[in-house]
Fold these 2 entries.
Entry 1:
Amino acid sequence: MGEWTHFNEGDHVPNDGEYMEIGENAFHMGITNPKTVTLKKGDTFPATSNHNRKWHSKGLRQ
C-alpha cells in the first residue's frame, strides 16, 4: 500500500519537505498564489485557505 499524497489540516507530516495547497481545479487551472509551507516529519499541517483545498508535497506530481 502506498503513502498518502493529499493531506488535511491537522494530519501529521510524513516526511520533511515543502508542501503546497492544491484544490479541486488545480490540475486544470491551478491556484493563484497557493500557500506553501516547509514542515518537518511529525509536524501537523496548518489550515488551508479554504475548505476545498488540501496539502500536497511540492516535489510530487498530482
Note: The first strand starts at residue 6 and ends at 7.
Entry 2:
Amino acid sequence: MADTPRFNPKDPAHDPAEGEGPIPRQQTAEQPDEQENGKPAVHPVDEKLPPLKMATTGLQHVAAMYAGVVAPPLIVGAAVGLSATELTFLTGACLFTAGLATFLQTLGIWNIGARLPFVNGVTFAGVAPMLAVVDSTDDKKDALPIIFGAVIVAGVLGFIAAPFFSKLVRFFPPVVTGTVITLIGVSLMPVAFGWAQGPSPDAPDFGSATNLGLAGVTLLVVLLLRRFTRGFVKQIAVLLGLVIGTVIAIPFGATDFGPVAEADIIGFPTPFHFGPPQFALAAIISLCVVMVVSMTESTADMLALGEIVDKPADEKTIAAGLRADTLGSAISPVFNGFMCSAFAQNIGLVAMTRIRSRFVVAAGGGFLVLMGLCPIAASLIAVVPRPVLGGAGVVLFGSVAASGIQTLVKAGLEKDNNVLIVAVSLAVGIIPITAPEFYHAFPETAKIILDSGISTGCVAAVLLNLVFNHLGRGQDRDDVTAPMEPAADLPAHRQGAGAH
C-alpha cells in the first residue's frame, strides 16, 4: 500500500454516477494525507454530503433495517401479552434506543464508537433467550423488568470487557460466527410460522386458509419485488411487502387501525415504563451469553465494513465499536429498549450504494429517534396483521440463516475438525426447536439458558473450536481455521448479509 495511491479516480467503485459523491483526490506515497492544495484529504467515511442527499440516503438505511428493529419488540411484546397501545409504546422505545446506539457508533464520544457507517439496533440474538425468560415467569408483568435488568448487567459487563474481547478475535473464526448466525435464523423461523397462522392460538381462525393465504401472498410480493425491481425499491422490498400485504388484508377484516387512532402524535419513552428492573441470575447469565454472541457478530461486521469503506478496523477501532454496542445496550432498557448490536444488512447497503459517509448513517439514527418520539409513526407497524408479518418473516429470518451459511462456506469445512464443530453445535442449538421438552427435568433457572438454542449452540461452538483448533500443538494444528482477518474473506461473505 505504501507505493500505490489510496484512492483511484478511475476505479469504477468511485464513479459519482453510482451515488458516492465527490471523488477523493488521488493520494501518493509522498502525499498520503494531503490533497494537491496541501489541505488534509477527507476520507469518504468522514465526508459530509449535501443535506438533501444526507437525508434521503439516511432514510434508505432506516428502510433497510426498520423491519429488523420492530420485529423483536413485536415478538417479545406479544409473548408478554401487551395490549396494542403498550406494544406500540415498546416498538417506539426500541426505535428511539436504536437511534441513540447508532449515534454512539457513528459519531462517537471519547473512546466509544467505531466512527464507521455502522447501524445499531435491537439484536435478534436476544429474542429466543428473552422468550425463555417470559415462559419461565409466572407473572408476565415481571417478564420485561427481568429482561431489562439482565440486559443492563450484560451491557455493563460487556463495556468493561470490550478492550479485552477485541484481543480475542482469533478465538471466533468464521466456523463459530457462521454457526451462531445460522442458529439465529433457524431459531426464529418458528416465530414466522406462528405469525402466519394468526394472532392467537385460541382464535377460531388460527391456521385458517385465509391467514396462511395472506402470509403466502406477502411472501410472493416480497420475492417479486426482489426479483424484478432495482435500487431503492429492491432494498425496501420487505417494507413494501408489509404495506401491500396489509392493504390486501383489509377486505378480509384482518387489519385493525385502532392502534393508530389511539396513538399520540408526540410522546417520549418514559424511563422504566414497565417497572423498575429486576435482577434474576439465570436471566442475567443467559443474556450475558447473548452479549458474547452480539460482540462476536459486531466484531465480524466491523472487520468487513472496514474493508468495504477502505478503512480497515484495527484492534482500537474494534474496542471502541464494542464499547458503543455495550453502552447502547446498557442504556437501552432505561428507555424500555432491548440489547443493541450491528445490523449487517446495512453493511450490504453501504457496499451496494458506495456511499460510505458515517454521517449519512448518523442521519438515519436521527430519523429513528424522531420515529421513537412520534408514537403514531411507531403505531403503524401494529396495524400490520400477524399473517402478513409471518410472510415477510420467512424472508427476514431465512436471510439470517442464509447469511450464516454463507459464512460457513468460507469457514474451511473441507477440514474434518470444522465439520465436527458445526455438526455438534448445530445439533445442540436446534434441540429446543425440534424437541421442546428435552430439558423438562432440569430446574426452571437452568431451562432459561438451555431453552435458548442460540446460547447453547454458541457455547458449544466456542468450546469445540478451542478444543479442536487451539488447544495443544499436535499433528492437527495445520487444520486450524484461520482467524477472522480484515483483509481475508469477510467482505465477500458479509457485505450482503442480513444478520439482524
Note: The chain is about 60% helix and 0% strand.
